[in-house]
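Pilot study result, target chain (228 residues):
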Amino acid sequence: MWYGLDPLYWIMLAPALLLGFWAQARVRSAFERAQQVPANMTGAAAARYILASAGLQPIAVEPTGGFLSDHYDPRNKVLRLSPAVFQGRTMAAVGIAAHESGHAIQDLKQYAPLVVRNAIVPVASFGSGISTTLLIIGALAGLPLLIKAGIVFFSAMVFFQIVNLPVEFDASRRAKAQLATLGVVPYEDQQNVREVLNAAAWTYVAGTLQSVLTLLYLLMRFSGNSRS
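Predicted structure:
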C-alpha cells in the first residue's frame, strides 16, 4: 500500500504490530506446550462429543489443510479441523476443537454477535478486496472521492473484526465450560487448554487493533487532504 511508505503510518501501527508479534509467539508457545500433554481422545472425537451433547449430531466434522486453519462453516453446517487438531490426541487439539464447537453452539442458539457477523461477511469480504484498489487508484490519480470510497469499504472490514471479537471470546468461554462440564479435560490439565484459548484470543485483538489504527490513519490523512 502507498501509505506503507509514510513513517507516521508505522508509528501509529507500532502498538498493534508489537501486540501481534507477542500474540503469535504466545499462541505457538502455548500450543506446543499443550501438544505435549496427552488427551484421552482426538480433537475430532472431542468435537463430535461436544456437538452431540448439545444436540448437534447432524453437524459434520471434517479435516482441512493448513496449520491452525480450524473453523466452523455456518452456511454448510460443517466444522473443519486442521490435521494437527483433527488427528491429534493432545490437550491442544481438544481445546481448539472445543473452541470451534463453541461456534456451532452459538449458531444453534442464534448468538446475536454471530448473527450480525454472518450477515456482514459478504460486505466485509467485498470491502476488504476493493478498498485497497480504490485507495491506490485514488492516491495515484489524486481523486479524493475514490480515497473516501476506499475508506468506507475498509470501514466495513473493520466493523466486521470488531463484531468478531465477542464471537471469538464467547466461543472460548463456551469451550472451557463444555470441556469442564463434560469431563473431557481433567481438572489438572484445564490450565493447558485455557492458555491455548486465551493466547488465540489475543491474536484477534491484535488484528482488530491493527485494522482500527489503519482506519484512523486513513481518516487523518484524508482529512488533511480535504483541508488542503
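One observation from the pilot: The first strand starts at residue 60 and ends at 63. A full batch analysis is planned for the follow-on phase.
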